[in-house]
Write a structure and sequence with these properties.
By secondary structure, this protein is α+β, with helices and mostly antiparallel strands. It contains 8 helices and 13 strands. The protein has 2 domains: 148 residues, 2-Layer Sandwich (Major capsid protein gp5 fold); 119 residues, hypothetical protein PF0899 fold (2-Layer Sandwich), CATH 3.30.2320. Helix content is 29%, strand content 27%.
Length: 315
């Protein structure tokens, strides 16, 4: 098959997943986002919202103070101080434009075209690479970052500022996780059973070591080898892209405590696939464009542990 025939056939294959101009049909865009999210560690656990426009407002409504008062028969609550108001407001998502490019050498294109796998190859590569890059942005995004990509938006570690527990350079341990539990505002304590500690792989392993090092009953050994280790019923979940190079010595990480669904990732409905041919260098270039943003539905229901040792071992 000649190069021209090869590219023409590849282009025809791409036409099966794209509309005019490269914009995926709405159902295909939803399918791509859904399958992409399932290949990520964190994003498959959070709330994902389709955004009909570039901005989306998430309403917040709650009753965080006492509403019941001592009553008198046939008498209304007349005093203003006896009436409870809701706490309300909005959290806004503002979709940022993101672009990615995948280059597929001619040899791989030819192999997969002849076997009829080219479309699957493109979608698989796109899903896996886009999932990793977007999850990295969701976690480590920081508009003050020197990394141009990470400076696109503020991710969850930058956004978590209201309730902070300083580990002071200690490795993750039961005492500090307990302090994080106690830092949860009283109004949200009832949600503790739904919460998770998100952290790095090294930090999660450090927590397992605490149980392995205790020469006690079998329960400790079972806890240390369990698929998901817990602290007072709250899972400690390792996320592959959680940073382990924070702090002055680049040897620290963080721990985030919240209900996973409190993390909201919004995707604008347009996902665009475009194909181009580089004859000189011999590859097909697939450019993927999407718009997204992240925020907490309720920032007050988040606790962050900072200055958590991520290298070496606890003494």
């Amino acid at each position: 098959m000649s190069n021209r025939q090869l590219i023409e056939k590849a282009d025809l294959a791409l036409d099966t997943i794209r509309d005019g101009g490269g914009l995926l049909e709405p159902e295909k865009a939803k399918k791509f986002i859904r399958e992409m999210i399932q290949s990520a560690d964190l994003m498959k656990q959070v709330t994902v919202l389709p955004m009909r426009s570039h901005t989306h407002r998430i309403p917040r409504l709650g009753l965080n103070t006492r509403i019941m008062r001592r009553g008198t028969s046939a008498t209304a609550l007349n005093n203003e101080e006896d009436r409870s108001n809701t706490t309300h407001g909005f959290v806004e998502l503002s979709a940022k434009l993101l672009k990615g490019e995948i280059r597929i050498p001619d040899e791989i294109v030819e192999d997969n075209i002849e076997r009829g796998n080219f479309t699957n190859l493109v979608m698989q590569m796109a899903r896996e690479r886009v999932a990793a890059d977007l999850e990295d942005l969701v976690i480590r995004g920081d508009t003050d970052s020197a990394d141009e990509y990470l400076a696109t938006l503020d991710g969850i570690l930058k956004l978590a500022t209201l309730h902070v527990v300083d580990f002071g350079g200690d490795h993750i341990n039961r005492q500090n996780l307990t302090l994080m539990h106690r830092a949860i505002p009283t109004a949200y304590r009832s949600l503790k059973s739904q919460m998770k500690f998100f952290t790095s792989h090294n930090a999660e392993e450090d927590f397992r070591l605490l149980f392995e090092d205790r020469e006690t009953e079998m329960a400790d050994r079972l806890q240390s080898s369990a698929p998901m280790i817990k602290h007072h019923g709250t899972p400690v979940v390792p996320i592959g892209l959680f940073p382990e190079d924070l702090g002055v010595g680049e040897d620290e990480t963080k721990v985030l405590l919240t209900v996973p669904k409190n993390i909201v990732v919004g995707f604008h409905r347009g996902v665009k696939f475009e194909v181009d041919r580089d004859v000189r260098h011999g590859f097909v270039s697939i450019v993927i464009t999407c718009r997204m943003d992240v925020n907490f539905s309720d920032p007050n229901a988040v606790v962050v542990g900072e200055s958590v040792a991520s290298q070496g071992f606890a003494a």
